[in-house]
Write a structure and sequence with these properties.
- With 418 residues, this protein is an alpha/beta fold.
- It has 3 domains: 3-238, Rossmann fold; 264-339, Tyrosyl-Transfer RNA Synthetase (Orthogonal Bundle), CATH 1.10.240.10; 349-417, Structural Genomics Hypothetical 15.5 Kd Protein In mrcA-pckA Intergenic Region, Chain A, CATH 3.10.290.
- The chain has 18 helices and 13 strands.
- A hairpin with a 3-residue loop joins β12 (401-407) and β13.
- α10 (187-203) packs across α11.
- It is globular.
- Mean pLDDT is 85; it is low at 1-12 and 107-111.
């Protein structure tokens, strides 16, 4: 029996509740921008029951603290959580401190190195503080899955593992590909979806959110809830946000991310670097503007309006959300100043010695380029300036003094060379 068939067999014999206008409105909010909502009819009934009884739904999102900082890709699902929170439901922000020690195999073509307890604790410290920039912390239940996973012990883990077969695990696309390719799959990786599913049992979740790459794990939670005699959760998956390159999903490891705690000027400049086509994807997944307003922007662009103007509005909205309106206005002014060849106000000051020094070494020592070879490539491409004057000589020796060194459009340093 397929997952879809199993999902459809959960019909109850009770008469369905009528869907009021407010329930249908809530359903529309839940569905905006989603990839899938499984099963929609079940979730509509959960909403109707919640309205009738006054009991809020329990809505779960789990994140493993695998890195210390959240980026805009993480906020796609956090935004949906906030929308559901605003409808009056109980959202649960689950930090996977236990599951981080296993390592999520979703979308991986190799075993993920598990984190140490120290790394997990350090990362977890900042997660909820950053998530609170999107969620209302006063109305958010924060939990750690070590609360119920640690007490399971070896006996409980074996009993849990007995509820799923290897054949079912190999239905996962990433496991299947690795198995066929002869790429090793560690036994402990099979535990990950089981433990994530057990989280739903422990929290008695009504709805679990996740990225599209989490669908298998979310379905395991649904199945385990049935085994434990609970009403199965519904599942809502959100699309994965592509990074600034417009190709790979946003990731710190791929350096195509916008961190939500980065300075406003940096966030603004990064968002302005996305393509005019990718801009609409970011609007759909990140903006709080209405669908009608975004559609009007698209018509404006088709009618001849400069896409840059629309991109500025998006960048300002995001910077305002994570900083302030004033920060967004300052970021726009800074961006325009840089575009005209101006020098930003907040550039780092660097003091080094060794004059006269070759331009390649100078750029490396000021950390504006990772290596001398990269620095010389930038000179060849006309991307290096001293006090606004383009450097064209790769053999240039720079004398002592104080000057502004610039690489590309966004890297600056006020250098004192002795």
């Amino acid at each position: 029996m397929t997952d879809s068939q199993k999902l459809q067999t959960n019909n109850t014999a009770t008469e369905p509740l009528p869907l009021s206008d407010s329930v249908q409105d809530a359903l529309a909010v839940a569905k905006r921008g989603v990839d899938e909502l499984l099963i929609e009819a079940e979730f509509a009934q959960k909403l109707a029951r919640s309205e009738k009884t006054g009991k809020p739904l329990r809505i779960k999102l789990g994140l493993d603290p695998t890195a210390p900082d959240l980026h805009l890709g993480h906020t796609v699902v956090l935004n949906k959580m906030r929308q559901l929170q605003n409808l009056g439901h109980q959202v649960i922000f689950l930090i996977g401190d236990f599951t981080s020690m296993i390592g999520d195999p979703s979308g991986r073509n190799a075993t993920r190195p598990p984190l140490t307890r120290e790394q997990i604790e350090e990362n977890a410290k900042t997660y909820f503080a950053q998530a609170s920039l999107v969620l209302d912390p006063a109305r958010t239940e924060i939990r750690y899955n070590s609360e119920w996973c640690d007490p399971l012990g070896a006996r409980g883990m074996i009993q849990l593992a007995a509820k799923y077969t290897v054949a079912r695990m190999l239905e996962r696309d990433d496991f299947t590909k690795r198995f066929k390719a002869g790429t090793p799959i560690s036994v402990h990786e099979f535990l990950y979806p089981l433990m994530q599913g057990y989280d739903s049992v422990a929290l008695q979740s009504d709805l679990e959110l996740g990225g599209t790459d989490q669908k298998f794990n979310l379905l395991v939670g649904r199945e385990l809830q049935k085994d434990y005699g609970q009403e199965p959760q519904c599942i809502l998956t959100m699309p994965l946000l592509e990074g600034l390159d417009g190709v790979e999903k946003m990731s710190k490891s791929k350096n195509n991310y916008v961190g939500i705690t980065e300075p406003g000027n940096t966030m603004f400049a990064k968002l302005m670097s996305i393509s005019d086509t990718m801009m609409w994807r970011y609007y759909d997944l990140l903006s709080f503007r209405s669908i009608a307003e975004i559609e009007q922007f698209k018509k404006d662009v088709e009618g001849g309006r400069n896409p840059r103007d629309i991109k500025v509005l998006l960048a300002q909205e995001i910077v305002t959300r994570f900083h302030s309106q004033q920060a967004a206005e300052d970021a726009l002014a800074d961006f325009n100043n840089r575009a005209k060849g101006g020098i930003p106000d907040d550039i780092p000051e660097v003091s080094i010695s060794g004059a006269p020094i070759g331009i390649g070494q100078l750029l490396k020592q000021t950390n504006l380029c990772a290596s001398s070879s990269e620095a010389l490539r930038m000179v060849e491409q006309g991307g290096v300036r001293i006090d606004g004057e383009t450097v064209s000589d790769k053999g240039l020796k720079v004398d002592a003094g104080t000057f502004v060194l610039q690489v590309g459009k966004r890297k600056f340093a006020r250098v004192t060379l002795a």
